[in-house]
Amino acid sequence: MADSEQLSSGLSGLSLDANAAEVPEAGSAEGQLPEPIVTSDGEWIDITTLVDRAASELASGALIKQTHFTLFDAMMSVEVMDPRLDMGILTADDALEVSQWDIDRQLTLREALWVALQLLRCEMTWHGSASLLQTLYTCNYFTANVDGLPIGQDSSNAVRDIVLFPIVIATGVGCRYVWSEFSRYNLFGEEDVQMGTIEPQFFADFSQHDADILLYEARMYLEFRMNEPGARELIEIVDSRRHWLRALGLLSAERMIEDASAAADGLAELRQMHVAWPDDEGTPVRGVFDPKCMRRYAAAAPIKPRELIEGPACVQELERMAKDLELVESLVRVESVEHLVYMFQKIHIRAPSPFVRSLLMTTLANNEHVVLAESPEALVRRAVLEMVAAPPRALAGWFANGDIIRVFLDWFRTLAQNPPRARRVAYKCLGTWDALQGEAEQADIDAFGAEHPGRDAADPAQNPFWVSSWVYHMKLMLLEGALLGGVRLHVYAAYELPIIFGYATQVFEAHAAHLDRMHMGAPGAARTQRLQRVGVLVRAQREMAVATWLISHMFERLLVFRAPWHSKHSDAATVLRLESTSAQRARYALRFRHVSMLGSPTHLSFDGWCASAEHLDECLLPELLGHAQNALSAARTILGDAKDHRDSGNASVVDAWADACRLLYAVVVANLVAMARLQQSGVLRAKELMVSGAAALEYRQCFLQADADDAANDRPVRSKKQRKDIERARKWRDAVEALARNKLNVTCVQGAHPDWPVFSVPGA
């Protein structure tokens, strides 16, 4: 117990004046923290009674605080004793649960089954970016000190030592592989994984071989007790753990560096793994899981509560991870950089778990020649030469820049991020690729001038601009992914879709024209075939962008029309406050702030966009629908013809390319069906809707003004013509709202590309 003088000295700096200014005490240094109140042996003192007594004498609004404690500190602090914020507080139920923990408890097989299943839920939730303190560390068996325990040996507590602890240790060893991959920092941010500030405990004294032997002995023991309840379910868990652990070891970057064929063996282990959530989940054991375990660890910030994944969903997540790990084996077998690009675009669409995405980047971005048996520098050279016939002089001049390899690998690393981060990083990387394009253009000019003296090296009609053409192609793919990525993430409001896809149309048009020009610098059948495959995807998406632009413009005219429309809003003044041209210009500039400074492609200005929108406003709705259907039909023809495309000797590349075509084809067909149903319904041919966009805008302003006057009981004297105009405007509104009640919206289709919108209409 501390001396009373020490306690009084420590409490002397507490202020009880609610109105006192935060002024340092005389003789104290500004910002100097007081000594903590501790006992002579270094233990903290419980001052709860003292604080309670002091608080009983405080007036409303008064505060007990140290003089150095400022308002800023108060905003950063945690509200203790509130279970919603103070994750370390023990409620009565928590305290009861903690008191039930007994590591020496004699377990039955059904109790061990329950613990193993709950541990699996913790593990899968951790894979989903939860903290260790919310998941695995809540299991007291997982964090227990196992030194001296007869693990794997027959003992008086055989189920614990021969069955449960081997499962727990194997779980920890597997998580150690995952943690090691996370520690490479191929992924960033807590949106992927919460690294935390605590030192991980993953049974470092046990190797994968040790865990495998323990699991084998556990299976032998369970076979001996096969007829007892819970034994069969535990055997399935043990077998799955063995296959999972072996697969992780074989698919680790270190193992594949030693032997690239190990990936195929790892895939074979995954295919033998079978997990099913049992109907009988065993018998719960009190005290094994401590949801408030974070009170035992020093954390930099309070951890937000996180629910564990439910049992069947947990099994689905494990199966999904096993399926995604097949991508690692596929990565080792890629035949070309073109194949690599298609594969990472597929990875971006599938968005696998953080562990798998990080493992993919580790496999690609190393100097041990795992992918294509080439170093990263050779990989970049191969990427260029697959698309253009760049002379050695051009490549040598360009590779003088040491950042090229990093930028090239970052292109793939961007696609390997989770979708929100991939979009953010893509926009940030565009500036780097733009600068790289300028450097490559100069290298191309120097190389062409040296090889063809007397010719104009800066003339695009003479100089193929080999390397800069490839850089521009890669930049355009990054830009297209960033633009379309906002659709999957629901970043764009409905009234922004015409703007986005109007701009996307221009980008795909520029890309298609650029690919046509690249044929100049790409002699040879192989390069021509690669450019043709890429051209199919780009031209199809160009037609899809045109169709989406027209459809979204049509929907916007009906439902929103360039500013949020809430015709039933009670505040008529708010409804009447339409977005001004300057506000629209500011919003346009904000949406395209990342691309407006790029040297290419030419940025579509706000005035250019307005001119395009005005041109579309002159069309009636059936006309817009017809043009959209024509564009979708053109995309379907382009993608349909590609299905019969085959190259000798490049089956895997063509298959990867065909998969990308199929995803786009599903979007095209779904939108064609929806537009056909919309046309057959005849709703767009209603008399009230057969007006131009300019007339619709006039109707909108007319009825909004009339509604505002009616709500304010300020009805001006109106002429007969004004009354007829208001009547026509309200009929137009009623027709639009009738169409809106039919749930015209944007949806998703299973098996379709998630970055492209699919429009749904009744019956489609």
Please outline the helices and strands.
Blueprint: H1 4-11, E1 14-15, H2 48-55, E2 65-66, H3 71-76, H4 92-99, H5 109-127, H6 140-143, H7 158-182, H8 208-224, H9 231-250, H10 253-258, H11 262-272, H12 311-324, H13 326-332, H14 337-350, H15 354-364, H16 376-387, H17 392-398, H18 404-415, H19 419-451, H20 466-488, H21 497-518, H22 525-559, H23 572-576, H24 581-591, H25 606-617, H26 621-642, H27 651-681, H28 693-711, H29 720-740, E3 745-747, E4 758-760
Antiparallel strand pairs: 1-2, 3-4
The profile of the biggest β sheet is: 2 strands, antiparallel
Mean pLDDT figure = 81
**Secondary-structure class:** mainly alpha
Tally of helical runs: 29
> In what order do the strands lie side by side in the largest sheet?
1-2
Span of the ends, CA to CA: 77 Å
- Poorly predicted runs: 6-31, 562-577
- Please give the share of residues in helix: 55-70%
General form: globular
Using only CA atoms, what is the Rg? 33 Å
Strand content: under 5%
Note down, in words, how this protein is organized.
The chain has 764 residues and is an all-alpha fold. The protein is built from 29 helices and four strands. The chain has helices spanning 4-11, 48-55, 71-76, 92-99, 109-127, 140-143, 158-182, 208-224, 231-250, 253-258, 262-272, 311-324, 326-332, 337-350, 354-364, 376-387, 392-398, 404-415, 419-451, 466-488, 497-518, 525-559, 572-576, 581-591, 606-617, 621-642, 651-681, 693-711, 720-740; strands spanning 14-15, 65-66, 745-747, 758-760. Helix 7 (158-182) packs across helix 15, helix 11 (262-272) runs antiparallel to helix 13 (326-332) and helix 22 (525-559) runs antiparallel to helix 26. Residues 6-31 and 562-577 have low confidence and may be disordered.
